């Protein structure tokens, strides 16, 4: 056996350690670059991911091309040309504080638990356990519904393009759900691969995403020109605002921001696999910032190119399919070539979606390691060969399949899938808020914002709160039970459920090793004091 592999005895947190010594199964390079032992844990993973792998981990599933094609109707309906351009650019700039804030937290404490763990570490000691328990359970609910939502999006995309080749097939909701379940099961099968092997799957999928984006931004204007169609003038593309909804501008303009908020997502995934990443305090935060910028810039290019190639915005806004960019591509590429293009992009998302399951399972295993879940020792176990928490992966697959079964009802699917949206914003809020008031409880890592740290976290907090408020608005001002936005209702229900769980089950939750955490902080402050003395 490779002596760099951790033995099964090292795979879970074995109580509170009396000494801070690393297990001999972890090599010297990992000792030098990791702080996981200092925080009270036995290292459980081989460090596999490097810069490219960490970057590909995100882009392999979070394709701006695929996301914008599905969700661009928000930009077009609520803002027209302005929505496609400034409705992407403005929020992409405003939201940049979020990845900066999370990158700083990840560099400080590169632990797979991420949001719930940082919440516990930055809270006053008396609030550490309850806040982290509640945050952890909201995280579990969010990742299960997100897995179902992403698989459903893949199923919907496949069900949209396949009938182009087989017109006799008209997929119903049950068939789409079956495709989505097949996608989830495929992701589950990837848990049998070694992490070293699956990294290449992510890189392949990421390369396909980048290639398909390049094809789109080059081929769309070329086909537009060869068909003799006029390009929209720049004055229209960047200056004409049209609102096709019944909301006033005060609500409609922020609605155009939703595409950016939903498509530029997953950038925080490197923080969920920090313990599997080499030089995590540097590589993980760098990957967070790089992937955000890559998705934001690629998305802006896609949106601007699309806007120039739309000649009739009014008819585009009332596209009966609800997928105006799908229609645009079919018109320019032709039905068969357009369908082939989307088949490639969707297949790439299906292939890369296994990264979503991996990062989600790493979070669940971290929460289980801290005793936050039933059967914690089993769920926290990392398989020695695959280097993955396979039992957590299995539970998440089962949970996503169960959510998809509920989704056979259109009303139920709207309610359940809506949780993934607001809960994702809610998860980021506590650690960012607590960082502002943490004082000496926060220890800066190699990636830190210095004097700008608190202002950036404050701005990130404001953007999160603002978007959570806007996410609560229904799509139409005059709503019905079918069109009502259940985001805030479902999220509030999960929050109440987590709070009740704390008061009924929380007494069994040990939480973080606060003594190890405090010792780590004291070592840092002592080094800082020694450094200032030597400089003096």
From TrEMBL:
<dbReference type="GO" id="GO:0016020">
    <property type="term" value="C:membrane"/>
</dbReference>
<keyword id="KW-0472">Membrane</keyword>
<keyword id="KW-0813">Transport</keyword>
<feature type="transmembrane region" description="Helical">
    <location>
        <begin position="137"/>
        <end position="162"/>
    </location>
</feature>
<feature type="transmembrane region" description="Helical">
    <location>
        <begin position="55"/>
        <end position="77"/>
    </location>
</feature>
<dbReference type="InterPro" id="IPR002293">
    <property type="entry name" value="AA/rel_permease1"/>
</dbReference>
<feature type="transmembrane region" description="Helical">
    <location>
        <begin position="83"/>
        <end position="103"/>
    </location>
</feature>
<dbReference type="GO" id="GO:0022857">
    <property type="term" value="F:transmembrane transporter activity"/>
</dbReference>
<feature type="transmembrane region" description="Helical">
    <location>
        <begin position="200"/>
        <end position="222"/>
    </location>
</feature>
<dbReference type="Pfam" id="PF13520">
    <property type="entry name" value="AA_permease_2"/>
</dbReference>
<feature type="transmembrane region" description="Helical">
    <location>
        <begin position="415"/>
        <end position="436"/>
    </location>
</feature>
<feature type="transmembrane region" description="Helical">
    <location>
        <begin position="486"/>
        <end position="505"/>
    </location>
</feature>
<feature type="transmembrane region" description="Helical">
    <location>
        <begin position="174"/>
        <end position="193"/>
    </location>
</feature>
<feature type="transmembrane region" description="Helical">
    <location>
        <begin position="292"/>
        <end position="311"/>
    </location>
</feature>
<feature type="transmembrane region" description="Helical">
    <location>
        <begin position="341"/>
        <end position="368"/>
    </location>
</feature>
<keyword id="KW-0812">Transmembrane</keyword>
<feature type="transmembrane region" description="Helical">
    <location>
        <begin position="388"/>
        <end position="408"/>
    </location>
</feature>
<protein>
    <recommendedName>
        <fullName>Amino acid transporter</fullName>
    </recommendedName>
</protein>
<feature type="transmembrane region" description="Helical">
    <location>
        <begin position="456"/>
        <end position="474"/>
    </location>
</feature>
<keyword id="KW-1133">Transmembrane helix</keyword>
């Amino acid at each position: 056996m490779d002596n760099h592999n951790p033995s099964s005895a090292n795979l879970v947190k074995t109580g509170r350690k009396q000494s801070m010594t690393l297990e001999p199964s972890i090599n010297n390079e990992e000792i030098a670059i990791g702080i996981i032992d200092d925080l009270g844990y036995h290292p459980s993973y081989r460090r596999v991911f490097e810069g490219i792998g960490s970057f590909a981990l995100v882009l392999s599933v979070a394709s701006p091309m695929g996301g914008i094609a599905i969700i661009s109707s928000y930009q077009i309906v609520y803002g027209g040309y302005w929505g496609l351009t400034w409705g992407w650019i403005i929020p992409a700039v405003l939201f940049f504080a979020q990845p900066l804030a999370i990158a700083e937290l990840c560099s400080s404490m590169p632990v797979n638990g991420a949001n719930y763990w940082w919440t516990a570490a930055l809270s006053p000691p008396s609030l550490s356990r309850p806040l982290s328990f509640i945050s952890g359970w909201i995280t579990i609910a969010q990742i299960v519904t997100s897995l179902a939502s992403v698989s459903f999006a893949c199923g919907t995309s496949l069900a949209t393009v396949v009938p182009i080749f087989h017109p006799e097939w008209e997929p119903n909701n049950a068939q789409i759900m079956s495709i989505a379940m097949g996608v989830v099961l495929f992701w589950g099968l990837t848990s049998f691969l070694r992490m070293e092997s699956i990294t290449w799957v992510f890189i392949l999928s990421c390369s396909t995403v980048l290639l398909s984006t390049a094809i789109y931004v080059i081929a769309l204007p070329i086909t537009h020109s060869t068909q003799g169609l006029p390009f929209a003038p720049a004055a229209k593309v960047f200056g004409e605002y049209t609102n096709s909804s019944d909301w006033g501008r005060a609500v409609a303009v922020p609605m155009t921001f939703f595409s950016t908020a939903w498509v530029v997502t997953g950038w925080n995934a490197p923080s969920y696999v920090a313990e599997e990443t080499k030089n995590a305090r540097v590589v993980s935060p760098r990957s967070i910032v790089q992937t955000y910028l890559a998705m934001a810039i690629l998305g802006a290019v896609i949106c601007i190119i699309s806007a120039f190639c739309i000649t009739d915005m009014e008819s585009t806004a009332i596209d009966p399919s609800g997928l105006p960019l799908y229609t645009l591509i079919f018109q320019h590429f032709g039905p068969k070539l357009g369908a082939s293009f989307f088949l490639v992009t969707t297949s790439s998302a299906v292939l890369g979606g296994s990264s979503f399951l991996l990062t989600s399972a790493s979070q669940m295993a971290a929460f289980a390691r801290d005793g936050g879940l039933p059967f914690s020792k089993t769920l926290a176990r990392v398989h020695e060969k695959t280097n993955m928490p396979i039992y957590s992966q299995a539970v998440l697959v089962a949970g996503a399949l169960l959510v998809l079964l509920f989704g056979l009802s259109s009303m139920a699917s709207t309610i359940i899938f809506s949780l993934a949206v607001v809960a994702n914003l809610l998860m980021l809020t506590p650690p960012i808020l607590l960082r502002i008031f943490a004082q000496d409880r926060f220890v800066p890592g190699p990636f830190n914002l210095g004097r700008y740290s608190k202002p950036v976290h404050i701005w990130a907090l404001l953007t999160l709160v603002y978007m959570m408020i806007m996410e609560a608005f229904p799509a139409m001002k005059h709503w019905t039970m079918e069109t009502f936005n259940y985001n805030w209702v479902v999220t509030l229900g999960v929050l109440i459920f987590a709070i009740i769980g704390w008061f009924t089950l929380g007494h069994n939750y040990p939480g973080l090793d606060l003594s190890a955490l405090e010792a780590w902080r004291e070592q840092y402050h002592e080094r800082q004091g020694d450094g200032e003395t030597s400089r003096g």
